[in-house]
Amino acid sequence: MSSKRKRAPTKKAGPKKNKRKETEIDSELSDNSESENATQPDEVLIAGHGDLLDEALPLPQELLKTLIKPAGQLLICGLINWELTGRRDAKTTLKLHPNLYSPTRFTNYKIRLAVSGCVAAHNVLVTEEGKAMTFGRNQYGQLGLNNLTIVQEPTLVPALQDKNVIGVACGRNHTLFLTDTGTVYACGDNRSGQCGVGNLQPTILSPMRINYRGAPIIKVGCGAEFSVILDIKGGLHTFGLPEYGQLGHNTDGKYFKTSTKLCFNFETSPKRIVLFIERSKDGHVSPVDVSEIVDFSCGQNHTVAIDSKKRTFSWGFGGFGRLGHAEPKDEMVPRLIKYFDIQSRGVISVTCGSTFSLVVTDIGGLFMFGQSKRTGEANMYPKPVHDLTGWNIHHIAAGLTSIMIAADDAVIAWGASPCYGELGLGTVIKSSSTPREVQKLNGVKVLGLSMGYSHTLIIGQNSTPEQIAKLETLEEFEL
């Protein structure tokens, strides 16, 4: 299907005079009924989509060993009333749970992967056997349980019971699942095409295979209303809402349906990013030869990626300096971050929060750019986080405004107020503008970290009697 075809609008336009601002933070996760009465789209699946294919073969064993993580005990902290997350005046009749201000044991399953998203109020767990379980908010079917009911405890996703899930990503209201055959399934809100199934069916209640027939996929990622997938050959493909240029296809997808109605050309199937650029100080643009992308991370409306030469590229919404180019301009195609394009600053990992980005260089330095608090100064270009100089960082999680890092044998967290317990620092110090050790996790070996809008998921190793004894000193959350 041509990406230039005009499609039925499913999103209200913002103010005509200026570029539409990002959704107001306090109501980012409110139910959005803008598209409720939109005319139904006339898109159809492309030929061949959904046909029976040859039996997909598992990814190479050497690769799977790096992608499949060891399992452990799930810990959770923060706001766990999913109906209230990100809403100013939510009305709920559900039983309310107090916020968890310290890491708390949750579920008896051994978990190898626990994932949420920086603007997500839902969660996906992958058990030791590779089974996907979901819980949290579900107003668009993002839990993949074939209903729209909020789920408080981890529940097996029926459509994926016979699959071995190795990767997951959560957008604001949609979810991607990656299996060991390099196949991607999606569910949830699809009004902007962010599920990549080839059409604009508003909600997908059960995981559906995305409309992609290329090389096997090895990583998935989600922004608020867009998705990114990385294939085994190093190719990046994006789909969903093109606003701010966040798909990297050199367009923001806008067109006027009438003289006053602004709409978007949504990308309903994965489309490969083919152009990477660098821009000189005088504004001269030249292409960069990128043969292979090795890692990436998505924020709310931006993406940062690393290539095989440890160079870093960013694109999408440029507000608050989150792209690291020392200017707040949107980037429609991946642009080289010049700050890291010198010796000793090669980047080996990247993690994006809602409006900021964190990268680790190959000599262990942690750099941040963007704004991690709701007020105050933004870092328009990468700046080192001096408090973590010399630490050996192995896991990073970033949420709306909070950050948690596992480094050496400690867990360190910080985030400006308001916080809801996602830092795990206890009831006395609920927020911190400077990095602090999470005392309750001293002695816990962290296997995985992920942050949602206002909660944190932690996987602690429990393979020895000492580790189990330490974890049992933490409180247990019971529904």
Task: Please describe what this structure looks like.
GO terms for molecular function: small GTPase binding. The chain has 479 residues and is an all-beta fold. The chain folds into 2 domains: 57-79 and 406-472, no CATH class; 115-405, Methylamine Dehydrogenase, Chain H. 3% of the residues lie in helices and 37% in strands. It is built from 2 helices and 32 strands. The strands form 9 sheets. Strands 2-1-32-31 form a 4-stranded antiparallel β-sheet, with no helix packed on it. Strands 3-4-5-6 form a 4-stranded antiparallel β-sheet, with no helix packed on it. The protein starts with 60 loop residues before the first helix and ends in an 8-residue tail after the last helix. The model is unreliable at 1-8, 10-18 and 32-53 (pLDDT under 50).
